[in-house]
Amino acid sequence: MLLSVSAIVTFGESSPTPVHYYPLSRLMIPFLLWAAFRLGRRGVTVGVAVIAAFAIWGTSHGFGPFVTSDANQSLMMLQLFIASNAVTFLFLVTVVEERRLAQAKQKEDQRRLGANLAVTRILAESPEVGAALQRTLPTVGESLEWEFGCVWIPAGNGKELSCVAIWQKTPKPQFDKICRERTFEPGVGLPGRVWKDLKPAWIPDVTKDDNFPRAPYATTEGLHAAFGFPILFNDKFLGVIEFFSHEIRPPDEPLLAMFAGIGSQIGQFMERKRAEAAVAEVAHQQSALFEFADRVQHSESLPEIYDAGINAILDAVQCDRASILLFDAQRVMRFVGSRGLSDAYCKAVEGHSPWSPDQRNPQPVTRIWPMLTLAAQLIIPLVIAALIGFACAWLLQQHAVQKFCRECTEARQRLEELTAQLQTFREKEKLMAMPELRLGACETELRVLESELEMMLKDLKDARKEIELHDRHEPHYLFRQA
Asked: Which DSSP symbol is given to 351?
């Protein structure tokens, strides 16, 4: 509006006094400068067009500072005026925009560098993987202005991804729910796409993407742009992290390259923590196995051995209930120790076994009931040449089923030690239960003692003979010496 008024003053017929002085044509420069700094290239282009329209109209009607006696000369001066303004201010706005873009890029680079350093600091400070991932999501999301983020990790079967951590700048209940409930196979959705290709992926608008099953929920929550990057250790796939924005954003290759590096950092952290946990677990298992073996070896009765075995199962498998059953003399399976089981249950189970008494190589049995109160049961055979019994462990917490199944090996190691000690203890009891063997052992010890006594008597007799012989040859030896 101000630019139009200044153009009318310069080239319009309604001026109070005729304007025939060229310097007054610069009356529009402040407004063009304002347009260049505030409105950008589009504002300068519109401003130059407005000035050109008024200048051409005024000059053609004999108004303005470029009117001379020669019409061609007037139009030539007008063209030079319009061209000089257009070139000058378009060049100026280009410089201003370049400077503005450079500042925006510098600011964005600083934000990205800050986010990268923050992630590095989080990985250095976090004691375990879950805490690190939960802190990484808000750090990246808030630093780079994303609205929603989540982490996907391969499930226990290794064939699909499940969500383990979510961050949201503002509540998005529907999208949050579908992320927690949904799993993805390789190639399906954004997480599956990243998993299949093992490289970052960018979707400008998820609501228009053909391979995005959560599109209806994203539309409801107003989410559009999304990107995901893999968590890798060397070439080993460990998971996917994805972020969403309310805006439609074109692919940003430098951002994807940066997050490819962050994914490698997180992968190294996860693998290092897994290695540390594995070393700590092995050390714990060895220490527990040594303590168990020591306790079993110092047991003085079978009930003490059974109690040590029950404690070993509870510690090795981290379960809620445990029991040991052995075949009795009639080859009937009987409880010899239990923890957390009712008498009614023990009575109902006695006499039953997953294997026949003479089976040579029985294998452990794992039963999982995802929808029941009892989550899982582990049955481990006890073998001395043939099956002598078995141990049972029960788990009540559904979330610990996978760990429960993985620790079957440790439980078997401890039960092998228990089985060996049972065999030794039984052999000792068998020997002590046979009177003829006890009598034979006593007779053997008595014969050894008699032999030693006879040797001692013989030595005494020989010494006495030597003394008597010496006294006969020199009877007054002591007196002569005196």
From this structure: T
Question: Looking at domain 299-432, which CATH architecture does it have?
Answer: 2-Layer Sandwich (3.30)
Q: Of the candidates 8, 91, 98, which has an alpha carbon nearest to the alpha carbon of residue 50?
A: 8
DSSP letter at 184? E
Tell me how far the alpha carbon of residue 101 is from its chain's centroid: 38
Question: Do 299-432 and 127-277 fall under one CATH topology?
Answer: yes
pLDDT tens, position by position, 459-477: 777 767 776 665 555 544 4
* The CATH number fitting domain 127-277, selected from 3.20.20.70, 3.40.50.300, 3.30.450.40, 3.40.50.1110: 3.30.450.40
**Residues 341-360: tens digit of each pLDDT:** 888 888 888 888 887 777 77
Structure tokens at 282: 């092995």
Contact yes or no for 205/216 (Cβ under 8 A): no
- The larger pLDDT score, comparing residue 274 to residue 195, is at 195
Calculate the alpha carbon distances from 378 to 142, 318, 374 in Å.
46, 12, 12
Task: Give kind and range of the element (H or E) at residue 101.
Answer: helix 71-125
Task: Give the sheet arrangement for strand 386-395, strand by strand.
Answer: 333-339, 321-327, 386-395, 376-384, 365-368
> ∠ CA(75), CA(77), CA(79), 5° rounding?
70
Say if pTM beats, i.e. exceeds, 0.90: no
Lowest-pLDDT range of 8-17, 93-102, 310-319, 416-425:
8-17
For Cα atoms 277, 279, 282, give the angle at the middle one, nearest 5 degrees.
105
All residues at 6 or more sequence positions from 157 whose CB lies less than 8 Å from its CB, including other chains = none
The tokens for 56 are 């051409």
Ordered by start, the domain boundaries in the chain are 2-102, 127-277, 299-432, 436-480
pLDDT at 14: 41
The label of the residue with tokens 């014969």 reads 447
The length of the chain, given as a count of residues: 482
Residues 6+ apart with CB under 8 A from 442: none
What are the residues whose beta carbons fall under 8 Å from the beta carbon of 334, sequence distance 6 or more? Answer: 325, 326, 327, 328, 350, 351
Secondary structure (3-state) at 76: helix
Nearest CA-CA partner of 312 in 285, 286, 287, 292:
292
CB 165 within 8 A of CB 183: no
Under DSSP, the state recorded for 24 is G
CB 132 within 8 A of CB 124: no
Distance of CA 210 to the CA centre of its chain: 29
